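Sample pair:
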Amino acid sequence: MPFPTPMFARSGDLMGAVNVFLDPQNGAAFLTDEALRYRVLAPLMDEGTAAILQELASEYEQKAQRLLTC
């Protein structure tokens, strides 16, 4: 999966771009691991923080699933 990243000068001018190719399976595994970490951590936090962590975990799981179905 291509992942183009623009490069900017300190002035803000676009200098060019680097195109990196990502392995979707490695990315999916990383996202799944992060989601699990957030779900383990969430019950230890206050209610607001826990809700944010649970939401992030859900988003990471969804992104991981999309990567695996590409």
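The helical segments are 24-41, 47-68.
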